[in-house]
Amino acid sequence: MPWLFINTEFQAQQPHQNAWMRATLSYDAGSKIKIDGEFQHRRQSGFENKECLDQELMYTLRSWVHYQHNESVKFSVSPLAYFSHHRIIQQEADFSSDPIREMRISAAVDLQHEIFTKFFLTDRNAMEYRIFQGSANNITRMRNRLGIRYDFIPRLKAGIYEEFFVNLSGTSTYYFFDHKRNVVFLDYTLVPGLKVETGYAYIVRLPPGNLKKIKENNLYLNLTFQFHRHRGQNRKSNHLQRG
Question: d(Cα 76, Cα 100) in Å, to the nearest integer?
Answer without folding.
Answer: 26
